[in-house]
């Protein structure tokens, strides 16, 4: 067994983890889970210490727990701590992650979200179950729940005013380019129509207070509207999420006929660059600083009194440095009022926005998020957004 590096007792040798999706990593790489390069590695790296000896794949610790929950499909052992018999080692040697990827990911739709270790538990679990347990990417007919172009069902939606979650009927129709929901089962007219063109969905389990919590945003009168939903069944809510991504994908294919799938996929849904509390003052910069919840969504910086508010109290567009936008650490010397100690000044062509962070690490993270937007050249459509942008100081 020396050819597998398994002396003195048989042990398979990992090449990469196939628990999650993305680019394969070379033998010995710290990218054990095949994560994108921008995902930070731990000090010990992500080389897998576990393997599924029934699937023939090497997996990391995070994925091993999910595999243990589907014992009818995947049986897990530690590479270093458990005993391996000769047949199991030979099985691992004759299969491996590349072979498993070729089999179990052979028909993944371009729009289907491939999670990384930084994603929530739900997305990671449903990806692994879809791949190995349900084998959705071997048999395309199993993809109908999120690829048919139409979907309807009931989801728990948080009330805008009272914060109570109530069951609401939702309908997604690609033909109409919209996601709609109805306040009553027999209602003929929807309570809201969300155009796919301006829709985004991102999982927010901690903020919503449910492991399957999904935040959907859309533009209403050029302002961002949030709705918060969940379903008790993890597969259901992830199917909804991927159905929304599919609708966005097909819309963008029509809107940008010359674009490749690789160009369109990053535009299907986006996670927020940064969220958290800061303090802000008003446009005169003589008002007191008030604590607000901030969300950085692409170039929109939105602030809310409460993280689960339906509408932002105000929105700030952050353009590129070529268009006159700058991010500065600290506040102007003339700043009045009591505030947190770590200031940030955003300079726009119209005015300066002043914010304060409670800790230096918060300040550093917010400055990095703002700088990322400022350093990125603006796209033609972003100039149109800037021109029509509304904010409440």
Structure description:
By secondary structure, the protein is of the alpha+beta class. It folds into 3 domains: about 90 residues, Arf GTPase activating protein (Annexin V, domain 1, Orthogonal Bundle), CATH 1.10.220.150; about 120 residues, Roll (PH-domain like); about 120 residues, PH-domain like (Roll). About 25% of the residues lie in helices and about 25% in strands. The chain has 10 helices and 17 strands. It has a 7-stranded antiparallel beta sheet with strand order 7-6-5-4-10-9-8. Strands 14-13-12-11-17-16-15 form a 7-stranded antiparallel beta sheet, with helices on one face. Strand 1 and strand 2 form a beta hairpin. The longest helix is centred in the middle third of the chain and has 22 residues.
Short overview:
Helix content is 25%, strand content 24%. By secondary structure, it is of the alpha+beta class. The longest helix has 22 residues, at 234-255.
Question: How can the largest sheet be summarized?
Answer: 7 strands, antiparallel
Q: How does the helix and strand content classify structurally? A: alpha+beta
Report helical residue fraction: 10-25%
* CATH topological fold name of the largest domain: PH-domain like
Rounded mean pLDDT score: 88
The quaternary organization reads as single chain
How many strand units?
A: 17
The CATH homologous superfamily of the largest domain corresponds to Pleckstrin-homology domain (PH domain)/Phosphotyrosine-binding domain (PTB)
User: How are the strands of the biggest sheet laid out side by side?
Assistant: 7-6-5-4-10-9-8
Domain Arf-GAP: 33-145
Subcellular location: Cytoplasm
Protein name: Arf-GAP with dual PH domain-containing protein 1 isoform X1
Keywords: Cytoplasm, GTPase activation, Metal-binding, Repeat, Zinc, Zinc-finger
């Amino acid at each position: 067994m020396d050819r597998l590096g398994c002396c003195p007792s048989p042990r398979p040798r990992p090449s990469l983890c196939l628990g999650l999706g993305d680019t394969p990593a070379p033998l010995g790489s710290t990218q054990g889970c095949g994560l994108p390069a921008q995902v930070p590695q731990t000090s010990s790296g992500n080389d897998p210490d576990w393997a599924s000896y029934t699937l023939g794949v090497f997996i990391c610790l995070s994925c091993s727990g999910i595999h243990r929950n589907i014992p009818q499909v995947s049986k897990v052992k530690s590479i270093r701590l458990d005993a391996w018999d000769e047949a199991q080692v030979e099985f691992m040697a004759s299969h491996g992650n590349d072979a498993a990827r070729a089999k179990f990911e052979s028909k993944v739709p371009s729009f289907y979200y491939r999670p990384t270790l930084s994603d929530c538990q739900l997305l990671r679990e449903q990806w692994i179950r879809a791949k190995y347990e349900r084998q959705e990417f071997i048999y395309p007919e199993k993809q109908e729940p999120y690829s048919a172009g139409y979907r309807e069902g009931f989801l728990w939606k948080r009330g805008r005013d009272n914060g109570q979650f109530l069951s609401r009927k939702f309908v997604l129709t690609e033909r109409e380019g919209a996601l709609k929901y109805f306040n009553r089962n027999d209602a003929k007219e929807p309570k809201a129509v969300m155009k796919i063109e301006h829709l985004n969905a991102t999982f927010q389990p901690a903020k919503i207070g449910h492991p399957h919590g999904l935040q959907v945003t859309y533009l209403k009168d050029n302002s961002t509207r949030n709705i918060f939903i969940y379903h008790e069944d993890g597969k259901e809510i992830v199917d909804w999420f991927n159905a929304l991504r599919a609708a966005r994908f097909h819309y963008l294919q029509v809107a940008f006929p010359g674009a490749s799938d690789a160009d369109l996929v990053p535009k299907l849904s986006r996670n927020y660059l940064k969220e958290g509390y800061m303090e802000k003052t008003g446009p005169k910069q003589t008002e007191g600083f008030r604590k607000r919840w901030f969300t950085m969504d692409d170039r929109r910086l939105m602030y809310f009194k409460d993280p689960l508010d339906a509408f932002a109290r105000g929105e700030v567009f952050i353009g590129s440095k070529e268009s006159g936008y700058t991010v500065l650490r600290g506040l102007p010397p003339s700043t009045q009022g009591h505030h947190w100690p770590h200031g940030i000044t955003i300079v726009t062509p119209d005015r300066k926005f002043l914010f304060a962070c409670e800790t230096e690490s918060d300040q550093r993270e917010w400055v990095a998020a703002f700088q990322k937007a400022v350093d990125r050249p603006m796209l033609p459509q972003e100039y149109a957004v800037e021109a029509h942008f509304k904010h409440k100081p």
